[in-house]
Amino acid sequence: MAESSVTFFLEKLSNLVIQEASLFGEVEGQVKLLRNELKWMRLFLKDADSNCIYDERIKLWVEQIREVAHDAEDVIDEFIFNMDHQRQKRLKNLKFLKRLPTCVGFADKLPFIHELDSRVKEINVMIEKIMVNRSKYGLEALVTPSSTSTDHGVSQQERRTPTVEETDVVEIKDGMEVVKQMLIKEDRMRPRAVMSIVGMGGLGKTTLAKKVYNHNDVKQHFHCQAWVYVSQEFKPRELLLSIISSVMSLSNEEKKEMREMGEDELGGKLRECLNDKKYLVAMDDVWSIEAWSSLRSYLPESRNGSKVLMTTRNKEIAAQANPHEVVGHTDSQALVYELRIMDGNESWELFLKKTFGARDSTPVSLSKALEELGRKIVAKCKGLPLAIVVLGGLLSTKEKTEPSWERVLASIDWHLNRGPESCFGILALSYNDLPYYLKSCFLYCGIFPEDSEIKASKLIHLWIAEGFVQRRGKEKLEDIAEDFLYELIHRSMVQVARKKANGRVMSCRIHDLLRDLAISEARDAKLFEELRHLNCRYGEISSQFKLNECMSGYLGVEQLTNLQTLALRAGSWLEGGGLGKLTQLRQLDLRGWLTPYLKKGFYDSIAELTTLRTLVLRDMEFYKTKTLLNRVGLKWQENIVEEKTLIPGLMSFSRHTYLYKVFLQGKVDRLPEQTEFYPPNLVKLTLSSCELKDDPMLILEKLPTLRILELVGNSYVGKNMVCSFGGFLQLESLELDSLNELEELTVEEGAMCNLRTLQILYCHKMKKLPRGLLQMKKLEKLGLRTRGEELIEEVQQTEGEEWDRIRLITSINKWD
Predict the structure, then answer these.
(1) Residue 670 phi/psi, 5° resolution?
(2) What is the CA radius of gyration of the chain?
(3) What's the mean pLDDT in 699-726?
(4) Mean pLDDT of 10-37
(5) CA distance linking residue 728 with residue 702, whole number of Å
(6) What angle do CA 576, 581, 587 make, to 5 degrees?
(7) Alpha-carbon torsion, ordered 164, 165, 166, 169, to 10 deg
(8) For residues 278 and 306, is the Cβ–Cβ distance under 8 A?
(9) Beta bridge partners of 661
(10) What phi and psi, each to the nearest 5 degrees, are found at residue 279?
């Protein structure tokens, strides 16, 4: 973990030395000294990270290194940030941007270089003391080389080789046929029934359910099937959408309509679809009877053999779902199958399969001593398939020798002595045995919601963005990260959810017990407190899945103090002032139903984020209509749900000197007239769905640094726009998109004198091109997209030399 932090910072530091070396002067020696010391630390940390759990002294030493690495990174980040700000400041003050240099001169850098020199010296002194402590307290003798600490992941060839499927690994032979018969056996006297698979975590409930669900006999028996992951944080509406997408063939337009429906309406559609069908709905990982109760009324109780297949840890839930059934796995007539713990022979067979890739037709030959050790190891798993599979994945990477297996057995005993949960102890051993380069990648998986399907490409890019993936020769970072994912799959720390046609992994998921482990270890390693980028823009953190419960109860938004990018759907995590403590934020992107959170605490938080470079606030319009509020089960009542606007509560952005891009979507009564309200260096502004009644140009034309302006989606609902003399002096691009009421744009002489791009899209009531168009001498592109003929004819038929120039730069797209 600490090794990853140091490696990521070393790459950044090396880039800085290359870029700014000529201007460092005396500080160059201190920066290079810092880099060299960290390189030595990194080599020692590869093994120390794996040993720190065994000795508190090593743990403390590793934590100190991690902290000093992040202190150093903060110093370098601040220096780079100040240099960037100086460049922007210099650009603003230059009169002839294209003719004069835009770099920051030595005199401009001098104060920052002196500050950097002073702070790097302090960090080098701290590092020296930390390294002295390594010898002083005899830490070298405590750190033993890790057999897995190598700079190589799985090979290129292995990455392309299909991995062993979980369904091939966990054999539950006696349960397969029993559960299948429960599903396909028909009793015309009984309405739709619920069949449950019950067992503790790690026994293989989901695996057994999937094998039965995907069996050809089952597929042929039912007219349609759907599989949904429920988990503790279930949302009935999302479950309904998931089932509907499986049992109904929908066009893109129909899918869009479904997404806008409330729970009752969706349930009605589902019930109507299933009424005359023999269906199978699988509900995986049900934690409460409420999850079943929220869906049961939408699943027709037809007497045609339809079934619901449920997996749960709780026998009571299974009993309540079918209150008249007998619970017991030996009775094939019952609709509850209780998974048992594997016996010794089954456990050994599974262990050999995972450790050696063994099949029944190719028995493994082991020496008597090695088999004896292996059976002792398997016995520690106490018949839990998940523990056996994960431990087998660990041993598959080890030498098949007695000393190697003896060390693993000793490690298991140590972990089991740390707590009563045998499975959790074995999982912790498998995590500790991971190579240093995989630990951060595995722990990062804990940030995703329980039972969620994680897109492989998204996970890979997030790992890269966090700096968990280091360069390896000439290989692409994406390929290296994919190696890491496949190695975690090979070790059974991550499971394959779906594959592409070529056999490569499309998506994955993490078992909830392993996710608990990831969260626990991440808490100790302070991983999420060091998180730089959290991008779940299309995910949702709701009142039931708050950000301060995002990692199962320990992580609050105020703890993510190192975040530089935050892109999330709105939710109750916005309540309070936690957002305002993320003082390192560079990009903030909030979308969804913002209305309930547009309060003083929210606006105060935005005011505190003075390092922002990009701000995106999207209050999704369709959530705010009374009809749709009722659809999603909310009542429109005074003082409970009010229709609010984005701007009024926002405080002045005068302190946001780095804020260059702003995107606002949502109701805005009127724009503030004082230019002091707006960020002083604002370059790009996008307004969408604001429904402004007053002409926004009269205010926006006074912003001195604005270069790009986009007014889209009825951001203005008036008929006329006027750009006054001397307005928009720096504006280079203007886009008017879907302003449904706009009829005329007037550009007075001396306005928009630097405009290079003008886009008029879907403004169907505009019958004439902007008055003043011909005086825009620097215009290089005019884009028109309309269903009317008037604008197109004006461009194509008007005569004159200036119109010839306009025709050459015009792009026309006729929209029917």
Answers:
(1) -160, 155
(2) 31
(3) 93
(4) 61
(5) 6
(6) 105
(7) -50
(8) yes
(9) 614, 684
(10) -120, 160
Residue 661 CA to residue 706 CA, distance in Å, equals 10
Q: State the chain's mean pLDDT as an integer.
A: 76
SS3 352: helix
pLDDT higher than 80, residue 441: yes
For residue 536, give both structure tokens.
Answer: 């779940």
The two structure tokens encoding residue 493: 């720390």
Q: How many helices (H) and strands (E) does the chain have?
A: 29, 21
Judge whether 467 and 73 are in contact, CB under 8 Å. no
Instruction: DSSP for 556-624, please give it.
Output: -GGG-TT-SEEEEE--GGGSSSGGGG-TT-SEEEEEE--GGG-SHHHHHHHHH-TT-SEEEEEE-GGGG
Tokens linked to 125 = 């002194």
Residues 518-525: what's their mean pLDDT?
A: 78
What is the per-residue burial (b if ≥16 Cβ within 10 Å, else e) of 684-717?
bbbbbbbebeebbbebbbbbebbbbbbbbbbbbe
User: How many Å apart are CA 694 and CA 145, to the nearest integer?
Assistant: 70
Q: Which of 503, 485, 505 is nearest to 493 (CA)?
A: 485
Quote the CA–CA distance of 634 and 624 in Å, as a whole number: 11
Please name every residue paired with 533 in a beta bridge, in sequence order, or none if there are none: 565
3-state helix, strand and coil shares in percent for the chain, rounded to the nearest 5: 45, 15, 40
Give dist(CA 519, CA 525) in Å, integer: 10
**Tokens at 736, concatenated:** 């008017």
For residues 409-413, give the mean pLDDT.
Answer: 76
Query: What pLDDT score does 524 carry?
Result: 72
Q: What is the mean pLDDT of residues 487-499?
A: 87
Contacts (Cβ under 8 Å, ≥6 apart) of 481: 441, 460, 461, 463, 464, 468, 469
Structure tokens at 269: 């559609």
H/E element holding 197?
Answer: strand 193-198
H helix or E strand, kind and range, residue 464: helix 456-465
Helix 512-525 with 422-432: angle, nearest 10 deg: 60
**Residue 204: is its pLDDT beyond 70?**
yes
| Unique residue bearing structure tokens 């000093």 | 68
Q: Are 768 and 794 in contact (CB under 8 A)?
A: yes
Q: Could you tell me the pLDDT band of residue 662, with boundaries at 50, 70 and 90?
A: very high
**Nearest partner of 1 among 530, 596, 762, judged by Cα:** 530
pLDDT, average across residues 178-200: 84
Give ∠ CA 206-212-216 in degrees, rounded to 5: 145
C-alpha 757/C-alpha 771 separation (Å) is 16
Asked if residues 603 and 626 have their Cβ atoms less than 8 Å apart, the reply is no
CA dist 36 and 29 (Å) reads 11
pLDDT at 695 over 90: yes
The residue written with tokens 């805005």 in the block is 668
Structure tokens at 612: 């922002």
Count of all residues that appear for the chain in the document: 816
Alpha-carbon distance values, 428 to 50, 66, 221, 339, 410 (Å): 12, 21, 42, 24, 14
Q: How far apart are the first and last CA of the chain?
A: 57
Do the Cβ atoms of 456 and 523 come closer than 8 Å? Answer: no
Higher-confidence residue: 322 or 680? 680
